[in-house]
Amino acid sequence: MPDVGMLREFLAGGHVDAAVFALRPDYRAMLLAVDGLVPGPSDQASDALLQAAEAAAREALRGRPAEDVPHVAAWREAYRAFGAKPRRTRNSLEALLRRTVLHQVPLGGEDLARYSGPPRLVRASGTEPFDTVADGIAVTEHPDPGEVVWCDDAGVTCRRWNWRQARRTRLREDTTTALFILDALDPLTDEALRATADDLAARLARLGPDVRAIHRLITAATGDRQARRDRP
Question: Sign (positive/negative) of CA torsion 107, 6, 207, 200?
Answer without folding.
Answer: negative
